[in-house]
Amino acid sequence: MKRKIKLKKILVLGLSILIGLGIGFAIIDYMHLNSLRSVKKFRGNLDKYYYDRDVLERKIREAIDSDYTGDFDKDFNNYLISLVLDDLSEEEIDKWKRYNQYLDGEELRQIREDNEKERNNNVTFALDEDTWYLRIDDFAKDIARELVGSKISEINEKKNLIVDLRHSRGGYVKSYLELAEFFCEEGTVTLSVDGAVNEKFKSGGSVKINAPKVYVFVSEKTASMAEQMAIMLRINQKAKIMGTTTYGKYIQVSINEKDNGGGYAFISGIMKDANGKINYDGIEPDVFIDEILDLDKEGLLQYIE
Q: What count of Cα atoms within 13 Å lies in the side-chain half-sphere of residue 255?
């Protein structure tokens, strides 16, 4: 009898929890729907009743530029995104304001074209009988396999490895992490990101590149994932960093495309290097070379010991 009463209590409790969850989700859905209705109503009221239509349309055109369609609903939604990101930018230092912004279709196409040009500058080959040369201008998708994974034995035959990051503005986090796999022991921390979700990334493989000497060349243009790469090689390959102080881009930026060809970007995290440090002012090289950007790849050889 006692067992039946206890079981009954458990069933009642379980049912109460389920009902409570159902009510909770229903309230959340209602609030979400109510918010959407409020925005839709506001948009509709402006569309119908704002006294100066020319001013309203001009402000929208200025904000979304080439994405302007003349469809008020679509244009207003993009205008709203633009206003929110502009407002968030006001909270950032000048250096980072441009990374919270609406991107019209033309701006997004330009970003793609620039990335493609940089990717085409990525090369890997034997510079001389003792030195392998690896240039990374863009941490694009699949570069780990293309530039390093397919050349492991050839790289390991050389006494020196040059990693040229002088013109690299960064790229995909995933591509950097895949490259780090070739240079780090399993379990080595290669990057940490603090944001809405805090993440710590560790190498899942073993060291595959064993060049006796590694030289990393950087400049004031070197930024983001390229800076992470330089620090990771300094720590794990005892690489010597040479050139000038790097840019100091410690933010992670998320770029999102919309169906109409435009998109938006916002800051999604703060990056810490393999030492757990935020490089606010860039990376100081081990050896300063003022004319670093004037040197061609053969000119770098004079700094190899």
A: 15
